[in-house]
């Protein structure tokens, strides 16, 4: 559960993103997420991702802030147990990396951009496969 620390419009962006990451990805708890996130799209994506991969284990590689922008690099592992981007559950494990950028305004995450290695994930869950072309020789 997100610790209730009161709304601080001048809170450190890096601290806000760290609290967000701990609550959502370490504790898998989106209860009270609106205290940290002002972006409904992000909240919806998080709920769907955690439903599809409820055993998600995330390792933070980097957490860097400049001004109100926070960059995060992670590695993750999970089991594909629910629909993920239109792909029905396969029960297969996957591991991949992701980079994310969070814009913090007025003490909340206002915007974001996340880039997962979707090709690696989709290959591991069996949604795509490599095609080897015959050699012309």
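^ structure tokens above, recovered residues below v
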């Amino acid at each position: 559960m997100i610790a209730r620390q009161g709304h601080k419009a001048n809170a450190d962006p890096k601290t806000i993103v760290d609290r967000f990451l701990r609550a959502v990805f370490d504790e898998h708890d989106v209860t009270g997420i609106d205290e940290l996130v002002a972006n409904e799209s992000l909240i919806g994506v998080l709920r769907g991702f955690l439903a599809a991969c409820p055993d998600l284990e995330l390792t933070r590689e980097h957490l860097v802030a400049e001004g109100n922008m926070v960059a995060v690099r992670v590695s993750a592992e999970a089991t594909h147990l629910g629909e993920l981007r239109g792909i029905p559950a396969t029960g297969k494990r996957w591991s991949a990396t992701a980079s994310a950028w969070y814009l913090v305004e007025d003490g909340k995450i206002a915007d974001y951009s996340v880039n997962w290695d979707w090709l690696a994930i989709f290959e591991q869950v069996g949604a795509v496969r490599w095609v080897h072309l015959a050699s012309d020789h």
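The chain has a mean pLDDT of 91.
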